[in-house]
């Protein structure tokens, strides 16, 4: 199986001198193409930091990160930004969107990068994505005129505009009620079924149980790596129980 992301003995520290602290203490992790992964762990265990370094958002202090065969320590700023733009999509707890643009323009803007030439193509793609996630009728709305779940759907459309190989989600369902959260997970499952790898940081066992692999972190290391069969709509209770049992074991 081809690896889309490799983290090889990653060390990440913050602070200087006596204040210096390792937040990731030599983490080795591999994500396969098309894999659906969740990262769980207590607050402060390094989940977001791991996601930031694997996505090249942040550099490392030791070890290396390889994305689709490219060692990020060997690429310059321009190539790093190209890799992030063309191979990765990002979904956050609260999508950061511009208040003076409608939903459609917010989805299109980041992929345009000032290039108006392909505006028609981008608009067509955004409309197809919006239709797919059930927000086709909201394209002219302001971002303040939609629900949290609808805004998150728009955030997912934005992340999919460049057909990424991997989507990173930092608590993408954290601001939603459990029904909306499961609907967002339905969308992630569909995207994953089409071959996009997804890595989600979550505190929610119901969310993690929808993935096929849950990495548990504690104190900057991965302490457990739980594998589940791909979710096919059945045995949700059994899956949640497996995740919950591991959480109890680890003390989350
Ligand atoms: N830019 C930074 N400067 C200094 N310390 C940082 C920085 N970013 C994160 N940390 C510290 O690194 C540790 C891990 O943070 P991180 O956000 O990765 O944890 P997390 O597991 O995602 O937590 P949570 O579940 O609360 O979001 C924390 O102790 C945090 O305070």
Automatic annotation (TrEMBL):
Pfam families assigned to the protein according to its UniProt record, in alphabetical order: ABC_tran
Domain of life: Bacteria
InterPro entries: AAA+_ATPase (IPR003593), ABC_transporter-like_ATP-bd (IPR003439), ABC_transporter-like_CS (IPR017871), MacB-like_ATP-bd (IPR017911), P-loop_NTPase (IPR027417)
Cited SMART domains: AAA
One annotated GO molecular function: ATP binding
Alphabetic keyword roster: ATP-binding, Nucleotide-binding, Transport
ABC transporter domain mapped to chain residues: 5-244
Cellular component terms per the entry's GO annotation: membrane protein complex
Family: Belongs to the ABC transporter superfamily.
PANTHER family in alphabetical order: ALPHA-D-RIBOSE 1-METHYLPHOSPHONATE 5-TRIPHOSPHATE SYNTHASE SUBUNIT PHNL, LIPOPROTEIN-RELEASING SYSTEM ATP-BINDING PROTEIN LOLD
Full protein name: ABC transporter ATP-binding protein
Organism: Paenibacillus azoreducens
């Amino acid at each position: 199986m081809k690896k889309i992301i490799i983290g090889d003995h990653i060390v990440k520290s913050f602070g200087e001198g006596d204040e210096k602290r390792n937040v990731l203490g030599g983490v080795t992790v591999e994500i396969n193409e098309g894999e659906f992964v969740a990262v769980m762990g207590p607050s402060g265990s390094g989940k977001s930091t791991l996601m930031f370094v694997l996505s090249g958002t942040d550099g490392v202090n030791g070890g290396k990160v390889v994305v689709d065969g490219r060692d990020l320590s060997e690429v310059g700023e321009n190539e790093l930004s190209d890799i992030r733009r063309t191979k990765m999509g990002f979904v956050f707890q609260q999508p950061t969107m511009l208040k003076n643009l409608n939903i459609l323009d917010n989805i299109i803007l980041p992929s345009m990068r000032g290039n108006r030439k392909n505006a028609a193509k981008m608009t067509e793609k955004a409309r197809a994505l919006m239709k797919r996630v059930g927000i086709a009728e909201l394209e002219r709305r302001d971002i303040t005129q939609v629900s949290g779940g609808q805004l998150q759907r728009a955030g997912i459309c934005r992340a999919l505009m460049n057909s990424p190989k991997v989507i990173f989600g930092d608590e993408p369902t954290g601001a939603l009620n459990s029904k909306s959260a499961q609907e967002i997970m339905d969308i992630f499952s569909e995207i994953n079924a089409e071959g996009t790898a997804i890595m989600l940081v979550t505190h929610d066992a119901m969310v993690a149980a929808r993935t096929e692999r849950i990495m548990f972190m504690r104190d900057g290391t991965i302490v457990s790596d739980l594998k589940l069969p791909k979710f096919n709509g059945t045995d949700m209770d059994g899956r949640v129980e497996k995740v919950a049992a591991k959480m109890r074991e680890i003390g989350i």
